[in-house]
Amino acid sequence: MLDGNTTCPKNIPNKAGVGYKPQHLNSILNNPTAIGWLEIHAENYMGDGGRPIAQLKRLAEQFPISCHGVGLSIGAEGHLDIDHLNRLKKLENWLKPALFSEHLAWSTHDGFFLNDLLPAPYTQQTADTVVAHINQVQDVVGRQMLLENPSTYVMFTESDRSEIEFLRDVAKRTGCGLLLDVNNVFVSATNHGYSPTEYIDAFPLELVGEIHLGGHEIDADDYGDDLLIDSHSRAVVDPVWALFDYTLQKSGPLPTLIEWDNDIPEWEVLASEAVLADAILAKAGAKAAV
Amino acid sequence: MNVDQHEFTAALLNPDQATPKGLIDSSGRPAGKRFDVYRNNVVFSLLEAMRTAFPVIEKLLGQELFHAISGDFVRKHPPRLPILMFYGAEFPKFLAAVELLAKSPYLPDVARLELARRVAYHAADVPAINPEALGEIDPEQLMGARFQFAPALHILTSDHPIIDLWNFNMIEDAPVPEPSGQIALISRPAFDPHMAAIGADTALFLTLLIDGQDLTSALEATAQAHPGFDLSAALGIMLQTEIITKIDL
Predict the structure, then answer these.
(1) Which CATH class is domain B112-249?
(2) Residues of B in contact with A72 (CB under 8 A)
């Protein structure tokens, strides 16, 4: 159990940031006011040296950095990988990122890493395991983490509580914060036939330290119903912008990340997504100030 | 109908296996195609990692064959680490066992070269000594010296022209490879891996120095195996490739 926030060297502003891609390095450095902050995938910076780490050190001098893990497998039935936890700690120690987050998902089983964010049933047993894992992460890394709501494509017959009840319980028992991925809310709500705005209404927004936005692909399930796939390969769609706006009207402005990890566009395209997010953030900020 | 992660994983990696029964949609119907999203994500994302790791193998095999062989590889050898930068260490051996590729015996060594380049790319940064520093050392002292080398350094011996094959596929106007063996010295002077073809004598000499022998012992053993060994040429290569990080006198 970890109480409250640890202090961060460079705080993330309540502005739009983007997921860092090396092909955008020069554009970012030449135009440093375009975005408020950057997020990196922790696992890409776990080598011993070379260009990736040199670039990250350079960027960290100028921008607040958020460290987003994609390989810890917090939702795994088995133990966390101690070696991997120590690699995260090492990265945290030199980078001192302003935010640190991971997923409510699993990706490693029996020593094999499956490189996807896989779903777990919402049960007492899963909650107990996730709580133990998050406590361990926060103990080893020595700071609060944010836990991200997943995009899911299937449900489990054994689930006996809602995703929000699950997240609320885990956050309460570990002191972790939450990362609200608004695109994931839209994707999961569509895939499972519930209302995304009702999900936001029920979500503990007071625990949210960061928002994610991204693009998804549209497929269909065996019955012809929409099946949305969280691909991070496109621009954010209008209904997700609307849901983001709806969320901020309730939460006030929050650090907001544009994720674009596949079919990565030119910098200008990504930067224009950040401009759109900043406009909605500014509107929410103005409302909060009234 | 609980679905444990063992059952989930087995179905994930085997497209012929049925979707686990405890997975459903929100109406309680079997998950069916929905589960395939996870199957596709796993295989496609690992295929992308393979394409990033082995661009020359992909060119040599052609996209279609590379995808077929890599698709088989990623299901049989999923990563052991949640870090993909070093994924594919078993790929050279895997390629060697593919019967269809028996006519291209150079493929496993080209894959080894691509792996070595990636390891060098992510190796720790340790600056090389200034070349002039070597000239300032008293020759007698130098003969008893031991050398420390850059973490990026790797020597790869092949019966095939691996450097020329790499260049031919990655660099415009590179000459067509001649059938002959090559020994590659892989280093990383700045941020990009560098390859130099070295002789068997230099390779032996370097290997002995890397093992911790002093200059005289390494020289004597190398000269015995390769009577024409040219020490100053070997030292020249070592300076040029920026692999010496420290000289212990």
Answers:
(1) alpha beta
(2) 82
